[in-house]
Amino acid sequence: MKRLHHSCPAVLHSVIPILETELRADGITPRIIATQTLGEMYADKGGPDLVRKYPSTWQAWINRRADIAVPVRLKCVEAVPALVSNLLECRETLEGISNLVPLVRLELINHADFLTTKILDPDEKVRAATCKVYSQLDYEAALHHVSESQLRGIAGRFLDKKVWSRRLSELHIYSC
User: Fold this and answer.
1) Residue 37 CB: number of other CB atoms within 10 A?
2) Are 38 and 61 in contact (CB under 8 A)?
3) Closest by alpha carbon to 23, among 44, 8, 42, 49?
4) On the CB side of 8, how many CA atoms lie within 13 Å of its CA?
5) CATH architecture designation of domain 2-175
6) Domain limits, the chain
7) pTM, entire model
8) pLDDT digits (tens, 9 = 90+) for 67-126
9) Backbone CA torsion sign across 129, 130, 135, 136
């Protein structure tokens, strides 16, 4: 599906609603696969157009950030760096299309807020993945879309005792 979306997105008009249904499935495996697939498709060159054509699917994908399953939340977080950089690249191209410009700007703001909430996620793996996302943002994205409060939130992750105890034990193993 990702390859088809990249080369010929018009072919997928009947498949995207199926992916949306999979996002809402009871089973964890379909949700993981659909979340990852759509995240990669949104991060592709036709991502903003996909958001515009299927807003309910986009909203269902965004709602996976609060999924009860940790692996699904992780897939959402992992998609953010490519998604944000793609939206930044497309912003100049989309300036002439008036109905997409506000959407792109809104989504950049939503993703900044999305990452802020994931810094405080109850699961250690999601918090660690969020910190990794911040480390992968390029300078321009970080300069324009990362606030001081977000940086303070990342710095607060140094207080995670589990992370530090695991790191210290890894260091101890390597030193022996």
Assistant:
1) 20
2) yes
3) 42
4) 2
5) Alpha Horseshoe (1.25)
6) 2-175
7) 0.74
8) 999 999 999 998 887 877 776 666 554 444 444 445 544 554 455 567 778 888 888 888
9) positive
